[in-house]
Amino acid sequence: MNDSVHLLFPLFSSIVFVFGATFAKQTAVRGTNPYTNTALSNLCLALFWTILGFARGTALPWDALGPAILIAFAFVMGQLCTYLAFQFGDVSLATPIFGVKIIIVAMLSSLLADQGVNFQVWIAAVLAALGIAVIQAGSGASRSTPLTTRRAVLTILLALLAATALSLFDIGLQACGRKYGAERFLTMMFFCMGVWSCGLLPWANGPAQLQRMGVIRPLLCGTVLMAAQAVSMSYALGHFGDATRVNIVYALRGLWSVGLAWLLSQLAVNPEGGHSPRTMVFRLVGAILITVSIFVALT
């Protein structure tokens, strides 16, 4: 049990992510652009880690500046593609697709980090890929707000780009956290990420626009929740490594997203609009396959 207790961090992140994504989708429906969500969430993260680092007297590892800049860029691109996927498609479609990180991280762990991946984890990755394929197969039928094939494909492509960028971030953070010290490197990396995110501000919605849209409250809720889940994931990867299993548990967010979408549809408050029973069945079956992959990997 002790060698798996750190997996509580990605479990927490998987739950918080879905609620944060739902708030992000709500703001997108009302007119905010993905640059706003990305910049605010990332600046919140940068502020948290910078204050924490200096409060604890953490010396910045300036020799790690180069890797920190590159890893921070991968994180910003991953976050931006995530919010773009929410902009063009459904949370309950995009979120399970992010589960492809399992496969990418497993491959990168094997090829780049010189870390063996056992046979059970590869079986789990295949099951997760099947789950993603099932979800994609049922992506087309919504009742009130049809998701066109073009928008569904664009959502899936953006989700895959986000998964790729964030997989590179995970592997880089795991390696550099061990080399330079997790807390020291996280402080440096998120400081660099804040600088990168400032470049998005010219394209972000201004305060007056946000006020007119009436999105201040959901925007703040989504920003805090998305930042909180990222803090939890970053801490797990930086301190414990184990990127493959951490991401397998994190893939539970696909199951939570389908369940939450169904619940909100029943309450008639789903920001994604209504979905046909066929769509929800496909998404549920795919999410269950991803969940089974988690138990296979952790056995």
Report on the architecture of this protein.
- The protein has helices spanning 8-29, 34-55, 65-88, 91-97, 101-111, 119-137, 149-180, 182-198, 207-213, 216-240, 243-250, 253-266, 277-298.
- It contains 13 helices and no strands.
- Helix content is 77%, strand content 0%.
- It has one domain.
- The model is unreliable at 141-145 (pLDDT under 50).
- With 299 residues, it is mostly helical.
Topology diagram in text:
Elements (H helix, E strand, L loop, with lengths): L7 H22 L4 H22 L9 H24 L2 H7 L3 H11 L7 H19 L11 H32 L1 H17 L8 H7 L2 H25 L2 H8 L2 H14 L10 H22 L1
Helix pairs in contact: 1-10, 1-11, 1-12, 2-3, 2-8, 2-10, 3-7, 3-8, 4-7, 4-12, 5-7, 5-11, 6-13, 7-8, 7-10, 8-10, 12-13
Largest sheet entry: none
**Oligomeric state of shown chains:** single chain
The stretches of 5 or more residues where confidence is low (pLDDT under 50) are: 141-145
Number of DSSP E strands:
0
Briefly summarize what is shown.
This protein is mainly alpha-helical and 299 residues long. The protein has one domain (2-298). It has helices spanning 8-29, 34-55, 65-88, 91-97, 101-111, 119-137, 149-180, 182-198, 207-213, 216-240, 243-250, 253-266, 277-298.
Any descriptors?
13 helices, mainly alpha, 299 residues
